[in-house]
Amino acid sequence: xxxxxxxxxxxxxxxxxxxxxxxxxxxxxxxxxxxxxxxxxxxxxxxxxxxxxxxxxxxxxxxxxxxxxxxxxxxxxxxxxxxxxxxxxxxxxxxxxxxxxxxxxxxxxxxxxxxxxxxxxxxxxxxxxxxxxxxxxxxxxxxxxxxxxxxxxxxxxxxxxxxxxxxxxxxxxxxxxxxxxxxxxxxxxx
Length: 190
Known about the structure:
Radius of gyration: 24 Å
Number of domains: 2
Shape: flat
Low-confidence stretches: 7-11, 13-23
Strand content: under 5%
Helix content: 55-70%
Oligomer: single chain
Mean pLDDT: 77
Number of strands: 0
Distance between the termini: 82 Å
Structural class: mainly alpha
Protein backbone atom coordinates (compact mmCIF):
# COMPACT_ATOMS: atom_id res chain seq x y z
CA UNK A 1 0.00 0.00 0.00
CA UNK A 2 1.13 3.54 -0.74
CA UNK A 3 2.56 5.17 2.37
CA UNK A 4 2.95 8.73 1.06
CA UNK A 5 1.46 11.82 2.65
CA UNK A 6 -2.28 12.21 2.44
CA UNK A 7 -3.66 14.73 -0.08
CA UNK A 8 -5.96 17.40 1.23
CA UNK A 9 -8.17 19.58 -1.00
CA UNK A 10 -6.57 22.63 0.55
CA UNK A 11 -3.12 21.57 -0.71
CA UNK A 12 -1.89 23.71 -3.56
CA UNK A 13 -1.46 21.86 -6.84
CA UNK A 14 1.39 23.16 -8.94
CA UNK A 15 0.81 22.99 -12.64
CA UNK A 16 3.90 23.36 -14.81
CA UNK A 17 3.79 26.52 -16.85
CA UNK A 18 5.33 26.69 -20.32
CA UNK A 19 8.31 29.05 -20.39
CA UNK A 20 7.84 32.30 -22.27
CA UNK A 21 8.98 32.50 -25.88
CA UNK A 22 12.73 32.99 -25.87
CA UNK A 23 15.33 33.88 -28.46
CA UNK A 24 15.75 30.24 -29.53
CA UNK A 25 12.06 30.06 -30.47
CA UNK A 26 12.36 33.22 -32.54
CA UNK A 27 15.54 31.99 -34.22
CA UNK A 28 13.87 28.68 -35.03
CA UNK A 29 10.89 30.52 -36.53
CA UNK A 30 13.23 32.49 -38.80
CA UNK A 31 15.17 29.33 -39.66
CA UNK A 32 11.94 27.51 -40.51
CA UNK A 33 10.53 30.33 -42.63
CA UNK A 34 13.82 30.88 -44.41
CA UNK A 35 14.50 27.25 -45.31
CA UNK A 36 11.17 25.42 -45.66
CA UNK A 37 10.65 26.35 -49.31
CA UNK A 38 14.25 25.39 -50.15
CA UNK A 39 13.92 21.94 -48.55
CA UNK A 40 10.57 21.28 -50.22
CA UNK A 41 11.95 22.44 -53.58
CA UNK A 42 14.94 20.10 -53.26
CA UNK A 43 12.66 17.18 -52.47
CA UNK A 44 10.28 17.98 -55.33
CA UNK A 45 12.78 18.99 -58.02
CA UNK A 46 15.76 16.76 -57.34
CA UNK A 47 14.07 13.67 -55.91
CA UNK A 48 10.63 14.02 -57.51
CA UNK A 49 8.86 13.48 -54.21
CA UNK A 50 5.18 14.53 -54.36
CA UNK A 51 4.71 17.97 -52.78
CA UNK A 52 2.60 16.80 -49.83
CA UNK A 53 5.21 14.20 -48.94
CA UNK A 54 8.03 16.69 -49.53
CA UNK A 55 6.54 19.06 -46.97
CA UNK A 56 6.21 16.21 -44.48
CA UNK A 57 9.85 15.27 -45.05
CA UNK A 58 10.91 18.90 -44.53
CA UNK A 59 9.02 18.94 -41.23
CA UNK A 60 10.81 15.75 -40.19
CA UNK A 61 14.14 17.43 -40.99
CA UNK A 62 13.24 20.38 -38.76
CA UNK A 63 12.18 18.01 -35.97
CA UNK A 64 15.50 16.22 -36.30
CA UNK A 65 17.26 19.59 -36.16
CA UNK A 66 15.52 20.45 -32.89
CA UNK A 67 16.70 17.15 -31.39
CA UNK A 68 20.31 17.65 -32.54
CA UNK A 69 20.76 21.44 -32.77
CA UNK A 70 23.63 21.48 -30.27
CA UNK A 71 25.61 18.99 -32.36
CA UNK A 72 25.25 20.80 -35.70
CA UNK A 73 28.20 22.97 -36.71
CA UNK A 74 27.18 24.18 -40.18
CA UNK A 75 23.42 24.47 -40.35
CA UNK A 76 22.74 25.10 -44.06
CA UNK A 77 24.78 22.13 -45.37
CA UNK A 78 23.26 19.95 -42.64
CA UNK A 79 19.71 20.88 -43.65
CA UNK A 80 20.41 20.10 -47.30
CA UNK A 81 22.06 16.80 -46.45
CA UNK A 82 19.20 15.89 -44.13
CA UNK A 83 16.51 16.50 -46.76
CA UNK A 84 18.50 14.49 -49.32
CA UNK A 85 18.80 11.56 -46.89
CA UNK A 86 15.11 11.84 -46.00
CA UNK A 87 14.14 11.73 -49.69
CA UNK A 88 16.29 8.69 -50.37
CA UNK A 89 14.79 6.94 -47.35
CA UNK A 90 11.31 7.92 -48.58
CA UNK A 91 11.89 6.21 -51.94
CA UNK A 92 13.44 3.13 -50.30
CA UNK A 93 10.36 2.77 -48.09
CA UNK A 94 7.73 3.61 -50.69
CA UNK A 95 9.43 2.21 -53.74
CA UNK A 96 6.85 1.44 -56.38
CA UNK A 97 3.83 2.14 -54.18
CA UNK A 98 4.03 5.88 -54.92
CA UNK A 99 4.05 7.43 -58.37
CA UNK A 100 6.92 9.78 -58.98
CA UNK A 101 6.13 13.37 -59.74
CA UNK A 102 5.95 14.28 -63.39
CA UNK A 103 9.08 16.19 -64.45
CA UNK A 104 6.99 19.03 -65.93
CA UNK A 105 5.15 19.49 -62.64
CA UNK A 106 8.44 19.53 -60.76
CA UNK A 107 9.68 22.35 -62.96
CA UNK A 108 6.59 24.46 -62.20
CA UNK A 109 7.76 24.89 -58.61
CA UNK A 110 10.41 27.62 -58.77
CA UNK A 111 13.84 27.05 -57.34
CA UNK A 112 14.01 29.37 -54.28
CA UNK A 113 17.70 30.01 -54.82
CA UNK A 114 17.14 31.41 -58.29
CA UNK A 115 14.23 33.71 -57.48
CA UNK A 116 15.38 37.32 -57.99
CA UNK A 117 18.92 36.12 -58.71
CA UNK A 118 19.56 39.02 -61.07
CA UNK A 119 18.72 41.45 -58.28
CA UNK A 120 20.87 39.66 -55.70
CA UNK A 121 23.92 38.78 -57.79
CA UNK A 122 25.47 42.29 -57.92
CA UNK A 123 25.14 42.62 -54.15
CA UNK A 124 26.70 39.22 -53.60
CA UNK A 125 29.64 40.10 -55.84
CA UNK A 126 30.10 43.41 -54.03
CA UNK A 127 30.11 41.64 -50.65
CA UNK A 128 32.73 39.20 -51.92
CA UNK A 129 34.90 42.11 -53.12
CA UNK A 130 34.61 43.84 -49.74
CA UNK A 131 35.43 40.64 -47.84
CA UNK A 132 38.51 40.13 -50.00
CA UNK A 133 39.64 43.71 -49.29
CA UNK A 134 39.17 43.51 -45.50
CA UNK A 135 42.07 42.62 -43.21
CA UNK A 136 42.24 38.81 -42.95
CA UNK A 137 41.12 38.71 -39.30
CA UNK A 138 38.05 40.85 -39.98
CA UNK A 139 37.12 38.85 -43.07
CA UNK A 140 37.49 35.60 -41.12
CA UNK A 141 35.25 36.87 -38.31
CA UNK A 142 32.52 37.96 -40.74
CA UNK A 143 32.71 34.69 -42.65
CA UNK A 144 32.43 32.68 -39.43
CA UNK A 145 29.44 34.72 -38.27
CA UNK A 146 27.43 35.16 -41.46
CA UNK A 147 28.50 32.35 -43.82
CA UNK A 148 29.39 29.50 -41.46
CA UNK A 149 26.69 30.32 -38.91
CA UNK A 150 28.89 30.43 -35.82
CA UNK A 151 27.40 32.01 -32.71
CA UNK A 152 29.11 34.89 -30.94
CA UNK A 153 30.12 32.45 -28.17
CA UNK A 154 31.71 30.04 -30.67
CA UNK A 155 33.66 32.86 -32.33
CA UNK A 156 34.78 34.09 -28.91
CA UNK A 157 36.00 30.61 -28.01
CA UNK A 158 37.85 30.36 -31.33
CA UNK A 159 39.52 33.75 -30.84
CA UNK A 160 40.17 33.19 -27.14
CA UNK A 161 38.34 36.35 -26.05
CA UNK A 162 35.10 37.17 -24.22
CA UNK A 163 31.71 37.09 -25.91
CA UNK A 164 31.15 40.77 -25.13
CA UNK A 165 34.39 41.75 -26.86
CA UNK A 166 33.51 39.48 -29.79
CA UNK A 167 30.13 41.20 -30.18
CA UNK A 168 31.90 44.58 -30.35
CA UNK A 169 34.45 43.14 -32.77
CA UNK A 170 31.74 41.85 -35.11
CA UNK A 171 30.16 45.30 -35.08
CA UNK A 172 33.52 46.90 -35.85
CA UNK A 173 34.08 44.47 -38.74
CA UNK A 174 30.63 45.27 -40.14
CA UNK A 175 31.24 49.03 -39.91
CA UNK A 176 34.58 48.69 -41.72
CA UNK A 177 32.97 46.51 -44.42
CA UNK A 178 30.17 49.07 -44.84
CA UNK A 179 32.69 51.91 -45.16
CA UNK A 180 34.63 49.98 -47.79
CA UNK A 181 31.43 49.16 -49.67
CA UNK A 182 30.29 52.79 -49.66
CA UNK A 183 33.74 54.04 -50.71
CA UNK A 184 33.93 51.67 -53.70
CA UNK A 185 33.23 53.18 -57.13
CA UNK A 186 29.60 53.09 -58.22
CA UNK A 187 28.62 49.79 -59.76
CA UNK A 188 26.56 49.43 -62.91
CA UNK A 189 22.95 48.49 -62.34
CA UNK A 190 21.29 46.25 -64.89
